[in-house]
TrEMBL record:
Family annotation (InterPro entries): Phstyr_phstse_ac, PTPA_C_lid, PTPA_sf
Reactions mediated catalytically: [protein]-peptidylproline (omega=180) = [protein]-peptidylproline (omega=0)
Protein name as it appears in the record: Serine/threonine-protein phosphatase 2A activator
Organism taxonomic ancestry: Eukaryota, Fungi, Dikarya, Ascomycota, Saccharomycotina
Pfam families for the chain: PTPA (PF03095)
Statement: the UniProt record of this protein carries the keyword Cytoplasm: yes
Provenance organism: Lodderomyces elongisporus (strain ATCC 11503 / CBS 2605 / JCM 1781 / NBRC 1676 / NRRL YB-4239)
CDD domains tied to this protein: PTPA
Keyword Hydrolase among UniProt keywords: no
Composition skew (Basic and acidic residues), residue ranges: 410-419
Length: 419
């Protein structure tokens, strides 16, 4: 979520880990929490219809190699009965996918990511304001009840969308970019631009994840803020929560214990985001699953109910995304969609901005990478499993508080310990 910000765009407010306390008191934080809960509940028990997810994205081709040709043929099926604004979002995602075709990767050696990705970003940044202005226009059924300035709302929403596809500077993609897409959709939902059904949300997220993963594959994007094998996933987190919620209240859902089986993956990879995400792991990685993805493996060894999987992953999200400075420092705050104001008093929260010397941006990137390595904690997996096995206390089974290990001593037992 980097880049220069023009007038009316959100601005940086989090400069240090101590700013996280202010973030947790902000309107932005509480609004994002509620949006996440609304989205997760909206998709509960719903399947993704055929023709939405691209099978090429999660299919291994030629053994362990990835054929670039296959990545340039996304599956696009016409879907009827969607509202015009939802169709426009899908049209925007399709256009961004087309820009990949127009921006082939450079074939020379690269150290981290392919620099053609920066050209893709440049083209997207040039087109997005026009694309978003089309579906953000007010009409008789989409009035701004709060009287917010139309052009500023467009600018802020466009900013979050532009930052949903990885870092142009760092050539990486991670959970912060995934959060930015939630902020884009959530802003439209909060101000009544769209009121998507669960099916519409799943279709939008499916197209978004296919686009994000295609960018990762084509331009070889690095994981942003990855914990290595001790992270839930190299790039994503929310996709697993959405998929787990899809299986909740679904009497035909596979058991948690069998979700990693070949039969389940083949049967559900194009209708469920959790299984689809697991299929993507199998496409990219070989070897024993419990070695390269131990946390997911632990989930399917120790947890019995999908509602518990969803509950634990939501708690983990609060810690690993909202609660981690290397991730949340890149989330910027605007005047309308996600204000940096106290949720109770509505007063502006303090911002402590230090002056930067020449080369400070590059030094900060190095510090970020070092900080990500420090986040490695193999004992965290045990906390995830324990959270999933705790009694449910909320009616919706969707916790919006920090995970049990957030303010306690580290768990000392092995991440593979059964409970």
């Amino acid at each position: 979520m980097d880049g220069k910000k023009p007038t009316q765009n959100p601005s940086k407010k989090i400069y240090d880990a101590t700013d996280l306390k202010n973030f947790e008191q902000s309107i932005a934080f509480h609004r994002l929490q509620q949006i996440l809960k609304d989205i997760v509940l909206a998709v509960q028990g719903i399947k993704i219809p055929p023709g939405v997810l691209d099978p090429n994205i999660v299919t291994r081709i030629n053994g362990n190699t990835i054929s670039s040709a296959a990545l340039f043929i996304p599956v696009v099926e016409p879907i009827e009965n969607f509202t015009p604004h939802v169709e426009q979002i899908l049209s925007i995602l399709k256009r961004l996918n087309d820009i990949i075709d127009e921006t082939p990767r450079f074939e020379g050696p690269t150290r981290f990511g392919n620099i053609a990705y920066r050209s893709w970003h440049d083209k997207v940044e040039a087109e997005l304001p026009t694309l978003t202005s089309e579906f953000l226009k007010f009409n008789d059924n989409n009035n701004d009840a709060n009287g917010e300035n139309h052009s500023k709302l467009i600018g802020e929403a466009t900013y979050y969308l532009a930052n949903s596809f990885g870092s142009k500077m760092r050539l990486d993609y991670g959970t912060g970019h995934e959060l930015s897409f939630v902020a884009f959709l959530g802003g439209l939902m909060h101000f009544k631009f769209i009121a998507p059904t669960g099916l519409e949300l799943l279709t939008i997220f499916s197209k978004y994840y296919d686009l994000a993963r295609r960018l990762i594959l084509v331009y070889n994007l690095e994981p942003a803020g990855s914990h290595g094998v001790w992270g839930l996933d190299d790039h994503f987190h929310l996709i697993y929560i959405l998929g787990a919620s899809q299986f909740c209240e679904d009497k035909f859902a596979p058991s948690v214990r069998t979700a990693l089986s070949k039969q389940t993956i083949l049967g559900h990879r194009l209708s469920n985001l959790y299984v689809n995400a697991v299929a993507f792991i199998f496409k990219l990685k070989s070897g024993p699953f419990h070695e390269h993805s131990p946390i997911i493996s632990d989930i399917h060894t120790n947890v019995l109910l999908w509602v518990k999987v969803r509950q634990g992953l939501m708690k983990m999200y609060m810690v690993e995304v909202f609660g981690k400075f290397p991730v949340i420092q890149h989330f910027w705050f605007g005047e309308y969609l996600y204000p940096w104001k106290h949720a109770q008093t509505k007063l502006a929260l303090p911002v402590i901005q230090r002056d930067r010397e020449d080369g400070e941006e590059e030094k900060e990137e190095d510090r970020e990478r070092e900080e990500r390595e420090k986040l490695f904690d193999p004992t965290r997996s045990a906390g995830v499993i324990k959270a999933m096995k705790m009694p449910t206390k909320s009616k919706s089974n969707i916790p919006m508080t920090a995970a049990p290990w957030a303010n306690s001593n580290r768990f000392r037992d092995s991440p593979f310990t059964k409970r």
